[in-house]
Design goal:
The structure holds three protein chains of three kinds. Chain A is of the alpha/beta class. Chain A contains nine helices and twelve strands. Chain A is globular. Chain C folds into two domains: about 130 residues, Rossmann fold, CATH 3.40.50.1980; about 160 residues, Rossmann fold. Chain C is globular. The longest helix of chain C is centred in the first third of the chain and has 21 residues. Classes of the chains: A alpha/beta, B mainly alpha, C alpha/beta.
Chain lengths: ~260, ~350, ~350
C-alpha cells in the first residue's frame, strides 16, 4: 500500500525537529532512513503512526489521511516496532504476539486470530521461545517477538526503529531477509531506520538521508550512497564501491 | 528440543482450558466458603440451618425449623455481612488490579494511592454536614465519597503526567495523599457532634458490623455493573499492562481513554465500598499480586481470580475477627493489615532486586 | 512451571491454616419468649419507645449508665455490659463475667452476643451506634433506649427514665431528692459569689471542657469561671493556659488510665501533679504558685452523673462558703449505699477527709 508523506513538520518546545518532509513509499518497497543520532529519524517514524502529533503537513495511506482515521483503523494499516522494549508484567511470547490481533479482536480472540499468530511464530522461528516470558529474554530475542507482533497486525505498512541494533550477525540477516521476503510476497511497505550502511545498501530499495531537519538526499539506494553524501552527513572519509549489485561502504578515517 | 508448531498450539489450547476450569472451581469454592462463613459466629449453626433459614425467609414464616431467632440471625446478620465482605473483596481487588495494569506498577492500589482515605473523607463530609433527602441516603454518601476520591485520583494522575515519577514515587505521593485526607477527616471530627462523630471515627479500620441488606444491594449492583463494563476491555487492559503508551497507541488503543475509564470505575467501586465499610487497605494490593503469580497476567483470567481471592480474604478476615477475641469483634481492616503490610514490604524489596526502579 | 506449582501448594497450606484458626466456635443458646404488655417512654434524645412493662433483662453500654442502674438497685437486671466496664474487675468482677461482654464500646456492638443474651431492652448512649442497633435488633423484638447518664444537667430526666424502664420509680425519686438537696445547697450558698478562674483538664494535657461538652455543666454547677468557656474545641494549647492564668487547676483522670473503682494511690497522684507543675512556663501560673491544684480520679468525678465531681470542685473552690457540704461523705454514701461497694478513700489529691 502506498504511503505518502506531504510536507510534514514537527517541533518540540519551539525547536524545529522536522521541516517539510515529503516522500512516498510504494507497496513492496523498503525505504531506509539514515542519519547520525539526534537528527529526528525516530521522531519522523512516530509522527507517521500518530504517536506524536504533527504540526503541519499530512500523511496519507493510499488516499486516506491518517489524521481522519481512528487509532484502531490506523493500527490495522500501520504497525510499529520500537527500538527499546521493556516489560513490567511478565507475559509469554504467544500472548505477546496475540496482542497484535487487538485491532481486530473485540472481546476475545477468534480461531483466525490464533491461526495467523501461530503461523507467524513458525515463520519467525520462535517455537522454542513460545512459552517463555518476554521479561526473561534478552533484548535481541525480545526484538524478534515484537516484530512478530507487528506482523500479526496484518499491516500494509510496517515501521521499524533500528530493528537490527541489538541483534547478532546471523539474526540481523535473518530478520532483514524475512522483512524483505514479506515485502516482495505480501506487498508490504517497509520504512525503517538503520545504522549499518552496508545492510541498508543490501536491503533497501530507496534511502532518505536526514540532516538539519530536512531531507538531505532522497532516491534509489545506489544513487544516494555516495562518498560525498556520507562525508557531508557523517563527517567521515569512506571508500564506496559496487559489488554484487549493491553499494559497499568501507570506513577510512575520521574527518576533523 | 524443537517442538512443532502444532504441538505448541495444542499446548496453548490446553492451558486455556485448564485456566477456565480453575476459574470455575474457584467460583464454586468461593460459594462453598460463603456458606461456611455464614455458619461461623457466636452461635454454631450448620449448613442445614442455613438452608432452613433461607426457606423461612422465602415463605415469610420464621417458625420453620423451630428456631426463629437463629433463622433471623442468619438472614439479617450473618448473610448480609458475608455478602458485603464478598462484594467488598471483589470490588477492591479488581479496582487494584486494573489500576496496577494501567499504571504498570505493582504497588498501586486504592489504599496506596490515597483513594480509600479520600472516599472516607467525602463520606464523612456528607454524614456530618449533609442534610436533605439525597444527602442522608446511601446514594448521597457514595456520591460525596466518589467526588473526593475522583479529585484524589485526578491529582495523582496529573502529578505523574507532569513529573516523570518512577513506580515507587507515585505510591509515595499516594501515601502522602492518604495522610492528607486522614488529616482532613480528623478536622471534620472537630465539628461533628456526638452521634455523627461516633459514626465517622469508626472508619480508620474497616468493619462489616453495620452491613445490612440495603447496603449490600447498593454495593452489589455497583460492583457487578463496573465489573461487566471492565470485561469488555480485557484485551485492551492486556495491552496497557505490557507496553508503554507508544506501543499501546500503535496497537490502536487510546491509553488516556482507557486510563480514564478504569480510573472512573475503580474509584466508583472503591468509594461505594468505603462509604459503608470504612477503610480496608491492602486487599487491592494483595489479591491482584497473588492472582498474577498464580494465574498469569492475562486479564481474562487474572481479573476474576483476583476478585475471588479478594472476596476470600475479606470473608475469612471478617470471620477471624469475629471469632478470635470473642465476644469483642476485631475489625476486618486490622486482620487484613497483618498479612498486607509484610507482603507490601516484600513486594518493594523483590521489585528492587529485579531492578525495576 | 516449577515455581508456580510450589506456590499453589503454599496457598493450599495457607488456606488450611486459615480454616483451622476459624475452627474455634462457640455454643448454642436458647430462644426466649417475650412478655407482651407494653409501656411508652421518652428517652434521653426524645425518641418515643414502646417497651415491655416488666423489663427483667437489659444490656447496657457505657459506665455511667451501668452506675446509674446500680444506684437504683437494679444491677441484677443487667445481662450484658461493654468491655470497658468488664475490665474494672474490682468493681464488677462479682456481677459480670467474660461471657456477658456485648461489645467493645457503645460504637462497636456485637449483635449476635446481644441476641444470645436475649434482653428486652438495650440501653446505650447518644454518642453510640443507637441508630444502627435499632435497625439490627428490630427483627428480634429487642428495643433500644438511649440514656445519657453522663450529662449532669439531665440527671433527673435520666434517673426518672431508668426508673420507669426498670420499675424502680421510687428508688429513682429517692436518689434524685438526695442529690437535688446537695445541688440546691451549693446553688443557694454560691449565688452572687465572684467566680474564680479555673483551668480544667481531662486526661490528656491540653484537653479541657467547653460549652456542650460532657464535663462543662459540672464546672457550671461548681460556679467555676472556666478560662476556656470561649474556646471552639476542647483541644487547646498549653501556652494559652499560661496566658489566661487560672487561679486554680482541676485535673480529672490521666492519659491512658481507665476509670477504676480503686483509687490511683498517692505515688500516682504525686506523679500526675508533677507532670502538671513541671510543664514549661507553668511556674508562672497563679494556681501553681499558690499550690491550688486539685486532682480527682475519673471514678470519683463521674459518680452520680458527675454531681460528685461538682461537689468536690465546688468545695475546693469555695470552702468558706460551703461549710455544710462534705464531698467525701457524699462520695462515701455514693459508693456504699448506691454502688454497694466498700468505701475506699483517697480518690482526690489533696485528700478530703469525711468531715471536710
Amino acid at each position: 500500500m502506498r504511503l505518502n508523506v506531504d510536507k510534514l513538520s514537527f517541533s518540540y518546545d519551539e525547536k524545529l525537529i522536522l521541516s517539510e518532509i515529503s516522500f512516498s513509499l510504494q507497496g513492496g518497497e523498503i525505504l531506509s532512513l539514515l542519519g547520525p543520532n539526534g537528527t529526528g529519524k525516530t521522531t519522523l517514524l512516530k509522527c507517521i503512526n500518530r504517536i506524536l502529533r504533527i504540526k503541519s503537513g499530512d500523511v496519507r495511506v493510499e488516499e486516506d489521511s491518517i489524521l481522519q482515521m481512528s487509532l484502531q483503523e490506523l493500527s490495522k494499516k500501520i504497525a510499529y516496532v520500537p527500538q527499546y522494549t521493556n516489560a513490567v508484567f511478565p507475559i509469554s511470547v504467544v500472548d505477546t504476539v496475540l496482542m497484535g490481533r487487538t485491532p481486530y479482536a473485540c472481546n476475545k480472540y477468534s480461531k483466525k486470530d490464533h491461526d495467523i499468530v501461530f503461523d507467524i511464530i513458525k515463520k519467525m522461528e520462535l517455537e522454542k521461545f513460545a512459552f517463555r516470558y518476554i521479561n526473561e529474554m534478552s533484548g535481541g530475542e525480545r526484538q524478534r517477538v515484537f516484530i512478530a507482533r507487528a506482523l500479526a497486525q496484518a499491516p500494509k505498512i510496517i515501521i521499524l526503529d533500528e530493528p537490527t541494533s541489538s541483534l547478532d550477525l546471523k539474526s540481523q540477516l535473518f530478520i532483514l531477509e524475512i522483512i524483505s521476503d514479506l515485502a516482495k510476497k505480501n506487498n508490504l511497505s517497509v520504512l525503517m531506520t538503520i545504522h549499518d550502511l552496508n545492510l541498508a545498501a543490501m536491503f533497501s530499495d530507496k534511502i532518505i538521508m536526514l540532516k538539519d531537519a530536512k531531507i538531505f538526499s532522497y532516491g534509489k539506494a545506489n544513487a544516494v550512497l555516495t562518498k560525498e553524501n556520507i562525508r557531508i552527513m557523517y563527517g567521515v572519509e569512506t571508500c564506496v564501491s559496487t559489488e554484487a549489485g549493491y553499494k559497499h561502504v568501507r570506513l577510512l578515517k575520521n574527518i576533523k | 528440543m524443537s517442538k512443532t508448531i502444532n504441538e505448541i498450539r495444542n499446548n496453548y489450547d490446553r492451558q486455556i482450558i485448564k485456566k477456565k476450569l480453575e476459574l470455575l472451581i474457584a467460583l464454586l469454592f468461593i460459594i462453598v466458603c460463603g456458606v461456611y462463613f455464614i455458619t461461623i459466629g457466636i452461635k454454631e449453626v450448620n449448613t442445614v440451618q442455613v438452608i432452613t433459614a433461607i426457606q423461612a425467609w422465602a415463605k415469610d414464616d420464621w417458625e420453620i425449623g423451630g428456631t426463629p431467632a437463629t433463622n433471623k440471625i442468619i438472614i439479617y446478620m450473618r448473610f448480609p455481612r458475608v455478602a458485603m465482605a464478598f462484594f467488598a473483596g471483589v470490588g477492591l481487588s479488581i479496582a487494584g488490579a486494573v489500576m496496577q495494569s494501567v499504571m504498570r506498577n505493582y504497588l498501586v492500589s486504592p489504599f496506596t494511592l490515597g483513594i480509600s482515605s479520600a472516599s472516607a473523607f467525602g463520606a464523612s463530609i456528607c454524614i456530618v454536614f449533609g442534610s436533605g433527602l439525597f444527602f442522608e441516603s446511601d446514594l448521597g454518601i457514595i456520591a460525596c465519597a466518589f467526588t473526593t476520591a475522583m479529585l484524589c485520583i485526578i491529582l495523582v494522575f496529573g502529578i505523574s503526567k507532569r513529573v516523570d515519577l518512577g513506580p515507587s514515587s507515585i505510591v509515595l505521593v499516594g501515601i502522602g495523599l492518604n495522610y492528607f485526607f486522614c488529616a482532613m477527616t480528623a478536622t471534620i471530627e472537630f465539628f461533628a457532634k456526638e452521634h455523627k462523630l461516633a459514626e465517622i471515627v469508626q472508619w480508620s479500620f474497616g468493619s462489616f458490623n453495620k452491613a445490612s441488606w440495603n447496603e449490600v444491594f447498593v454495593v452489589g449492583v455497583v460492583i457487578t455493573l463496573c465489573y461487566l463494563i471492565l470485561t469488555k476491555s480485557y484485551l485492551k487492559l492486556n495491552v496497557m499492562s505490557t507496553g508503554d503508551d507508544e506501543l499501546v497507541k500503535s496497537l490502536g488503543v487510546n491509553p488516556n481513554k482507557i486510563r480514564r475509564l478504569t480510573g472512573f470505575l475503580a474509584v466508583l467501586m472503591t468509594a461505594s465500598i468505603i462509604s459503608f465499610s470504612g477503610i480496608i487497605g491492602f486487599v487491592g494490593l494483595i489479591a491482584p499480586h497473588i492472582a498474577r503469580i498464580l494465574f498469569g497476567n492475562d486479564h481474562r483470567f487474572m481479573l476474576p481470580f483476583a476478585g475471588v481471592i479478594g472476596a476470600f480474604l475479606l470473608m475469612a478476615g471478617d470471620a477471624i475477627g469475629r471469632v478470635i477475641l470473642e465476644p469483642v469483634i476485631i475489625p476486618v481492616g486490622i486482620i487484613v493489615s497483618f498479612i498486607g503490610v509484610p507482603l507490601f514490604i516484600q513486594l518493594i524489596l523483590s521489585n528492587r532486586k529485579k531492578g525495576l526502579w | 512451571m516449577m515455581g508456580k506449582k510450589k506456590r499453589k501448594y503454599v496457598l493450599a497450606v495457607l488456606l488450611l491454616f486459615i480454616f483451622l484458626v476459624i475452627g474455634c466456635t462457640k455454643n448454642i443458646s436458647n430462644e426466649k419468649n417475650y412478655i407482651h404488655k407494653e409501656v411508652t417512654v421518652t428517652d434521653s434524645i426524645g425518641r418515643i419507645v414502646k417497651i415491655p412493662s416488666h423489663v427483667e433483662k437489659v444490656v447496657v453500654f457505657n459506665r455511667y449508665n451501668v452506675e446509674a442502674i446500680q444506684s437504683l438497685g437494679a444491677i441484677k437486671k443487667i445481662a450484658g455490659i461493654d468491655y470497658g466496664v468488664y475490665l474494672d474487675k474490682e468493681a464488677y468482677g462479682r456481677e459480670f463475667n467474660e461471657n456477658q461482654v456485648s461489645g467493645k464500646n457503645a460504637n462497636e456492638l456485637n449483635y449476635e452476643k446481644i441476641i444470645e443474651l436475649a434482653p428486652q431492652v438495650v440501653i446505650i448512649t447518644g454518642n453510640g451506634a443507637w441508630e444502627d442497633a435499632q435497625k439490627k435488633l428490630e427483627p428480634f423484638g429487642i428495643k433500644v433506649v438511649v440514656v445519657n447518664a453522663y450529662y449532669t444537667d439531665q440527671f433527673q430526666k435520666t434517673y426518672r427514665l431508668l426508673g420507669k424502664v426498670l420499675n424502680k420509680e421510687e428508688e429513682a425519686e429517692e436518689f434524685i431528692a438526695y442529690f437535688e438537696d446537695k445541688l440546691a445547697y451549693i446553688d443557694k450558698k454560691l449565688k452572687g459569689v465572684h467566680r474564680k478562674k479555673v483551668y480544667y483538664e481531662y486526661k490528656n494535657p491540653g484537653t479541657t471542657t467547653i460549652p456542650g461538652d460532657y464535663f462543662y455543666n459540672m464546672l457550671e454547677v461548681a460556679r467555676a469561671d472556666n478560662i476556656f468557656s470561649d474556646a471552639k474545641n476542647v483541644k487547646i494549647s498549653l501556652e494559652s493556659v499560661i496566658f489566661r492564668n487560672p487561679d486554680l487547676i482541676v485535673k480529672v483522670g490521666e492519659a491512658k488510665y481507665d476509670p477504676k473503682y480503686l483509687p490511683p494511690g498517692d505515688a500516682e497522684f504525686e506523679n500526675r501533679k508533677k507532670n502538671i507543675i513541671n510543664r514549661v512556663g507553668f511556674e508562672q501560673i497563679t494556681a501553681v504558685k499558690n499550690d491550688e491544684i486539685l486532682l480527682i480520679s475519673q471514678y470519683a468525678q463521674g459518680g452520680a452523673s458527675k454531681i460528685i465531681g461538682a461537689c468536690y470542685i465546688a468545695k475546693f473552690l469555695y470552702p468558706e462558703y460551703l461549710p455544710e457540704l462534705h464531698p467525701e461523705e457524699i462520695f462515701k454514701t455514693w459508693v456504699t449505699k448506691y454502688q454497694k461497694l466498700t468505701y475506699v478513700g483517697g480518690h482526690t489529691y489533696p485528700k478530703f477527709s469525711v468531715e471536710d
